[in-house]
Amino acid sequence: MRIPTKPLSAYPWFIRLFFWKQRRTYGKVLEPGLLWGRSPWLFATVALLYGALDRRSSPLSPALRSLVTVRVSQINHCDFCVDVNSATLLKRGVAMEKVLALPKWRDSALYDEEERLALEYAEAMTRTGEQVSDSLMARLKERFGDDAVIELTGLVAFQNLSSKFNSALDVPPQGFCPLPSRAAPTGESLEEIVR
Length: 195
Fold this sequence. Notes:
The chain is mostly helical. Helix content is 64%, strand content 0%.
């Protein structure tokens, strides 16, 4: 990592509460949390936003939310995000075959119409030089409705924030998901392996 973390005792008590929750959820404190925690109020705000986006009552299914976050993470070259979000995607009942095919989702029969539409939108929002067209927005609104489009837009925007933060600071994966990219002796990325 390009910025060191601090000892846990150096973080304010209210940030250590977030770390306690991470330990309960993931079995360990997340490296990005330790980095965000260097700016406690920023970290608390980001954590609350993530909680709002990943709540049970979201109009988007948990698997769809995770599918989108993995794809955005792949585009932004965030190894940590691909790792943790792929593990969450698997826990939400999506097969490893589908996770591995994600970089080439357009050519795969594994994705349904709703997933394809959400992934198309995520890519249009994430890729530099692309734009969300009126026709894409019309299809999204027809399929999901206005409130869910707002949720999806917020999720993609958040994941871009998170994955760009982690990628810029070179946050490594923490071993949550056994993706082939970590076992590849050549150092190829998951996207390169699946190609």
